[in-house]
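Interim report, section 4.2 (structural modelling).
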Amino acid sequence: MSANITVSDLSVSFRSARGYVPVVHGISFSIRPGETLALVGESGSGKSVTSMAIMKLLAPAPMTRIEGRAVVTDNQGNPVDLVALDEKQLRHIRGNRIAMIFQEPLTSLNPVHTVGDQIAEAIRFHERLSKAEARRRALSLLEQVGIPEPAKRLDTYPHELSGGMRQRVMIAIALAMEPDILIADEPTTALDVTVQAQILGLLRDLQRKKGMAILFITHNFGVVAEIADRVMVMYAGRIVEEGSVLHVLSSPRMPYTRGLLASVPRLEHAGLGQAELGTIPGYVPDPAAPPAGCAFHPRCAHNKPGICDVEPPELVEVRAGHQLRCSRWQELCLEGGVR
Amino acid sequence: MTTAAAPLSVFATPAWYQNRTLRRFMRHRLAVMGTVMIALLIMACVFGPYLLPYDDLKIDIRHRFAAPFTGDHYLGTDALGRDTAARLLNAGRISLLVGFFAMVISTVIGASIGVIAGYYRGWLGAVLMRIVDAFLSFPSVFLVLVLAAFIKPNPIMITVIIAATSWMEIARIVETEIRSLRERDFILAARMIGASSRWIMFRELVPNAIGPIIVAATLTIAHAILLEAYISFLGYGIQPPLPSWGNMLNSAQQYLGKAPWLAIVPGLAITLAVASFNFIGDGLRDALDGRSDLK
Amino acid sequence: MTRYILNRLGQSAVILVLVSLIGFVVLNLAPGGPLSQFALTPGMSQAELDRIAEQLGLNRPLLVQYIDWFSRLFIGDWGRSFRDGQSVLAIIAGHLPATLLLMGTSTLVSILIGTWVGVMGAVRRYSVFDTLATVGAMVALSIPTFWFGLVAIYLFSLNLKWLPAGSMYTIGDQSIGDYAIHLILPVMVLAFVNVAIWSRYMRSATLEVIDQDFVRTARAKGLPYRRVLIHHIVRNALLPMITLAGLQLPTILGGALVTETVFTWPGMGRLFLDSIGYSDYPVIMGILMFSAILVLLGNLMADLLVGLADPRVRLG
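Predicted structure of the assembly:
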């Protein structure tokens, strides 16, 4: 089965007073229809920048530099590289073949337009149809995302809805054109725990029905366990571990992943509790002045001078479909630090 | 009391503040330009009249309406043959002085009302701010004209009248600033060590609100110069033979076709002075606002 | 919404009372008070002055006078002109249309141009256009309006002879085209400053909106650039501008007064100056009070408009 999106060697740098600072280094992945890939990392790890770069929502060319490829299928069924497209061509793909939902549903909706108008708008600029027809489609979308009394809600404004309802509206907007790929950037972080679970359930149901690929960005391993098939851990702009949820969550090999997982209260309750990520000492390195060798070594409990701070480790496959980036992973395995 | 409060005052205006502010100000090209222009203008108005060959009041009927740059009258002469350059510089003294002192008076009024309204809030603050609103409901030009027409105009009264109608903006700015400042830790600390309200208001709050006050004061000079020019232009401001930039324009209108320089020269002087103060104000706003460092 | 309106009405009423107090104080500031007009008349004896004072009720305590004056304001008795005995309100009503025509046209022009300049400056922040617009606006705000009017008359009327130098119409013509030609110069002069103000505020309002999450959502939907700009960015940036337009009203009104004096425009500004020349206190006070009430009403209307334009206020 061919992938809905294939990202290869994607790099992003931001312009600063002292030249371009790389924040994402050569990321590659692909997502198949019906599959959910979770992208996990602390804030500042580059996970949101990756998603915004794929959508081309970052500041334009001189301010940011995007390299690599992000190939999706356009309306005619031809592969297109989003990185190479200009704004005009992009607009036929965005919101159509690839859609996105965000962390803050309140600020992500326009306060002065009704919910119905904002959904209809997402359809009417991709498809020629009457206002009445667009409104009918908006109504059915509200129904699909499980909003009670959808006919009434069409003419309400975002601030009149609860956080969970707003996020459902955002999902309705994103799914308006039945995209192949949905990027969800921490869509449940701003919500109550119970509402979180509902939204995750909704996304799973909709994915089952429509068969879209989901790139799910989060810092919460509980949510990962809940929704993802595969997981990709990001640190300082690089993928440091990637594999099936089963592999990575039950036997993480990279010390950073283990640190993140250790900070989740208990896996059994995950999805209900917000993960606390404060237990790894230190901070994400400054992208303008990255440490030599492995980017994680200054914070790593297994740091060995002379190895970790010399050569940046490559991404290696430790078993089928499980890759990681650590100079000492074999030793650590033997030490029993990792099962 | 003094010993206890002294460290707080140091905290209020840290030493690096001045330097960083100055550095940011110097980076603002227009503001630097404005400062240089104002310095030159003041020097010209102070020393210029002594260096010019003609007195500003000397009437010379034979040389009426001399065009600029032609004879030995650098900027030409007016309907009475008086030297425009000499009149311009002497008028500048009056106009700049009126602008400056109107700023001083209105800043004192505005800042006092703003501080009191912001500090006491409650009904006193509400009433004071409604009075500010009421004053702001009148177009300031209307108020100034009525007052100037009612009161015998001399430079001091004109200054007072302009100040009396220009203090509201500063009051508003200061009130907002004080209201947010008064909840801050160092004010609470001052209150805990038993500082009096007056001490807190004028020794702790005002120094911390000084940035916005300076900015508003600079813009008030610009505003006052414009107001003076307008009422003098209409004949209700500075009275001849004392020249001001405004009353030089008063007679210029009727000779517009014959001697346009009589209108153009003082108008340019007003624009130059007002623009310079506006540029300085803008530069000060950027310089005193720490956030502009992020860019 | 009703509570919001009532609240605003209450505040306006308080300010109105304060405005009337200021007006009354100003009135009594005149040398000799409201009687100074008669005091200047030659051959007027003190006895006669006292008689007039009694007739006009000026010998009563100030508080009584104020209450009387204020209640008369309410019932529409704004006094009679010293000049021709006409009712003050009627005189003002006669001059109001000319002022409204000038103000309305120039405000419309400046909002259109100012919005465009402000939005373009914000969209292309720090571009050559933005820098020029910023510096240009600051210079425009520094030019005395009346002087700019004189220069405009000199250039376009005396030199180029394209446009009339003043007044509202040619006697005997008064066609729409004739009005329009007379409008151009004063509107241009008055709009010059207002464009500067409006574009500055519009620029910062747009910058506030441009980085908001919902703009990102609009782009993620795949909307065309113009749609994102107009429907999402400008639509939201205009909200604070409504309040601002209300707050700018005194400035616009003052600007109109200044412009009218230069272009001999037969509006309230002209009337005001003439009345000052004649020490016609009832008319002066009338215009002063009228303009303040106009400003208050304008602010109130702006607040109501914000309520209509912003759904968050409408229900709050």
